[in-house]
Design goal:
Helix content: 10-25%
Distance between the termini: 20 Å
Order of helices and strands: EHEEEE
CATH class: Alpha Beta
Radius of gyration: 15 Å
Structural class: alpha+beta
Oligomer: single chain
CATH topology: Thiol Ester Dehydrase, Chain A
Shape: elongated
Length: about 120
Amino acid sequence: METFILVRPEHLNHYGYLFGGMMLKWVDEFAWIAASKEFTGAKLVTIAMNNILFKERVVNGSILRFHINLAKKGTTSVEYAVDVYADEPDNQIEKKVFSTSITFVNINEHGEKLKII
C-alpha cells in the first residue's frame, strides 16, 4: 500500500523540522490501515515498532510517501515493512527519510491473542 501526506507547520518541532512523534503516528496509523484492509475482521493492535532511527530531517512542505508491505505473517501477528520517502519543495529528487517495521497482534475483546485467518 502507498499513501501520501503533506508536512505542514503544525507538524514541525521547535527547530522547524518534522517532529519525530508525528512520523511515528503516521507510520502506526497507515500501517494499521494496510493491515486492517488485508486482514479484514481482525482486531489488530500495535505491539512493536522496530529500528526507530531518525537520520534525515524533513522540512515543511514536503510530500511524504509511505510505502507499506507485509513482511511476515505469524499465527497471531503480522509484521509490515514501512519506508518513508520525502519529496521536498524545490527538489526534484525524492529521498528516503525513514524506515521501520511494525508488528500488530490480533486480539479478542479481553485482550487475548487470536489466530489470524
